């Protein structure tokens, strides 16, 4: 019990001494040991690294999981050291809804929902894989730095600052002790000073000499501890360069994961567009034929678009209204009325009266046929 009380009293005294030294430094009443410029640059670089790493980490979390409730749930599971339950992605959920809805509808809407639902589920699965890869290769190293390396650096920096305060307090005590010793050693006035005071003056001078020796010893000890801690902190701060190299490698892995994810999504969407380019033909033609028949009945003028089948060989390009178009994706014709396309080629396109807005007539040399608008970039 006595030991604990003494230890507590000693700690309280040390804390009070540091508080006094810190306050006097802020008021300009005490000197402060300055660190060298290289050390200050290392600390500034470390602070900058911590601040930006924290911002990048938080925003990457938002990018990967926009739902704040889900992020809080994952955080709680992590703190409880429990595995978070597997969460279905929004794309997978949408795909499931579409496929379930397709059972209630007939063709062509139901069959289209099935195709789109399958694609959405594949996109959702690709997203889940991307989230897992990004969390392991990018988020985890950033979190390890913030919760591991940076906490160690902060702890050692606080200890260095405390030892600096102790060192400067020792310097202040030594300065005051030397000043008091010098005053005590001053020669007394023989006319005004009694003989008894000579003894007191000599005793006080010897006492202050002992205080100076004690203060010098404490200063040497404090300087040694400060130098040792400064070297430890310097080594940790210089390790920030290795942290940058590690984070750079993780950033490359994150970019590669993103590129693979978006490439996979692009391929899935291209396949879906090809599938949808074939599926709408039945009802697109029906709509086209109905509009053409209605137009012919109302105006009594024959249309190039027949009610039963589109006779491509009889279609003539209009005198005006033709445009050039660049093909965006490869397209395989579903039947003889369509024109197969190759990506990046240029073709001439135009529309016919009563024709569905999702389709155009395309010409390439002597070849002509219907082409889907979504596969084209119309040029001026």
Automatic annotation (TrEMBL):
Membrane topology, record value: Peripheral membrane protein
Positions of the BAR domain: 24-285
Pfam families, A to Z: BAR, SH3_9
Main location: cytoplasm
Keyword field: Apoptosis, Coiled coil, Cytoplasm, Golgi apparatus, Membrane, Mitochondrion, Mitochondrion outer membrane, SH3 domain
Keyword Phosphoprotein annotated: no
Coiled coil: 153-180, 205-232
Alphabetical list of PROSITE patterns matching this protein: BAR, SH3
InterPro entries: AH/BAR_dom_sf, BAR_dom, Endophilin_SH3RF, SH3-like_dom_sf, SH3_domain, SH3GLB_SH3
Residue span, SH3 domain: 320-380
Keyword Membrane included in the entry's annotation: yes
Protein family per UniProt: Belongs to the endophilin family.
Protein name as it appears in the record: Endophilin-B1
Biological source species: Seriola lalandi dorsalis
């Amino acid at each position: 019990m006595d030991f604990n009380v003494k230890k507590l009293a000693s700690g309280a005294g040390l804390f009070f001494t540091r508080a006094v030294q810190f306050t006097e430094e802020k008021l300009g009443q005490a000197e402060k040991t300055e660190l060298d410029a290289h050390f200050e640059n290392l600390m500034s670089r470390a602070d900058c690294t911590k601040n930006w790493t924290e911002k990048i980490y938080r925003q990457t979390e938002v990018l990967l999981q926009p739902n704040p409730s889900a992020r809080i749930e994952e955080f709680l599971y992590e703190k409880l050291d429990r595995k978070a339950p597997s969460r279905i992605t929004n794309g997978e959920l949408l795909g499931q809804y579409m496929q379930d809805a397709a059972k209630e509808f007939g063709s062509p809407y139901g069959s289209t929902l099935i195709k789109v639902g399958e694609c959405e589920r594949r996109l959702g699965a690709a997203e889940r894989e991307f989230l897992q890869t990004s969390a392991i290769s990018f988020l985890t190293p950033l979190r390890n730095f913030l919760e591991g390396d940076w906490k160690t650096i902060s702890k050692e920096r606080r200890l260095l600052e405390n030892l600096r305060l102790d060192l400067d307090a020792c310097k202040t005590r030594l300065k005051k002790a030397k000043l008091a010793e010098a005053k005590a050693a001053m020669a007394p006035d023989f006319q005004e000073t009694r003989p008894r005071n000579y003894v007191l003056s000599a005793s006080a001078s010897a006492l202050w000499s002992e205080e100076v020796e004690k203060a010098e010893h404490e200063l040497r000890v404090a300087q040694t501890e400060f130098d040792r801690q400064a070297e430890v902190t310097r080594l940790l701060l210089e390790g920030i360069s290795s942290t940058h190299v590690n984070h750079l490698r993780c950033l490359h892995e994150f970019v590669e994961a993103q590129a693979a994810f978006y490439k996979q999504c692009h391929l899935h969407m291209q396949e879906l567009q090809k599938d949808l380019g074939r599926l709408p033909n039945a009802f697109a033609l029906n709509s086209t034929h109905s509009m053409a028949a209605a137009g012919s009945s109302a105006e009594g003028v024959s249309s190039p678009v027949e009610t039963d089948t589109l006779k491509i060989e009889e279609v003539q390009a209009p005198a005006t209204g033709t445009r050039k178009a660049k093909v965006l994706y490869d397209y395989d014709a579903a039947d003889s009325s369509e024109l197969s396309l190759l990506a990046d080629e240029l073709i001439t396109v135009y529309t016919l009266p009563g024709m569905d807005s999702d389709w155009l007539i395309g010409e390439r040399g002597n070849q002509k046929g219907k082409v889907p608008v979504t596969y084209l970039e119309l040029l001026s």
